[in-house]
Design a protein that fits this description.
With 179 residues, this protein is an alpha+beta fold. The protein has six helices and six strands; from the N terminus they run H-E-E-H-H-H-E-H-E-E-H-E.
Length: 179
């Protein structure tokens, strides 16, 4: 008798938990590709209603009163390039980006940092060198600005001839200075 009650209760729960799911095919708004998903028809109708509200152009009530034959204009299309942005395009949008610098060494005092910087400038006059004092009492000496680790590799190999501990580290750089 208990098993019969358990079976009846499970079947009644499953009977009440009936989801009316259907397969819906939507168009992607940017690329126009099809997206297939399974969802409840009520959810699909609610999403369609929201999309319709978003696609309508807001118009002031005064222009509607003056024009009886008013038809809302379609929203302008947004052009999205399907290619990777160039470094110049990235720099226009973000003057400071996450790139790489060559960490020459870490020293304990500001005087040591200035000595290392002057020695580095004599050896590599074409590379910009700076001190990062965010780890006080230690000072990091950083050189160059690079978009990727690969672009820093050639300068890093030259720097390692004089500074064996030099490594490429991720760092915020000014995009205009980067190689």
């Amino acid at each position: 008798m208990r098993n019969l009650i358990k079976i009846f209760s499970i079947l009644s729960i499953l009977g009440f938990y009936n989801i009316d799911a259907q397969q819906v095919v939507k168009k992607d708004t940017l690329a126009g590709t099809e997206l297939t998903m399974t969802m409840d028809s009520k959810v699909s109708n609610a999403l369609d209603a929201l999309e319709d509200k978003c696609s309508k152009v807001a118009v002031s009530s005064s222009s509607r009163d003056n024009d009886n034959d008013y038809t809302p204009s379609k929203p302008t299309k947004i052009f999205v390039p399907n290619r990777e942005l160039t470094n110049a395009e990235i720099c226009r949008k973000n003057p400071r980006i996450l790139g790489y610098k060559i960490q020459i060494t870490t020293v304990k005092s500001n005087e040591e940092a200035n000595e290392v910087k002057s020695y580095f400038r004599k050896r590599f006059p074409n590379l910009k060198v700076e001190t990062d004092a965010s780890l006080r009492p230690n000072y990091k000496i950083l050189a160059g600005s690079y978009f990727t680790k690969q672009s820093a590799a050639s300068d890093l190999s030259k720097v390692r001839e004089y500074f064996k501990s030099a490594i490429a580290v991720q760092y915020r750089i000014f995009c205009a200075e980067a190689k």
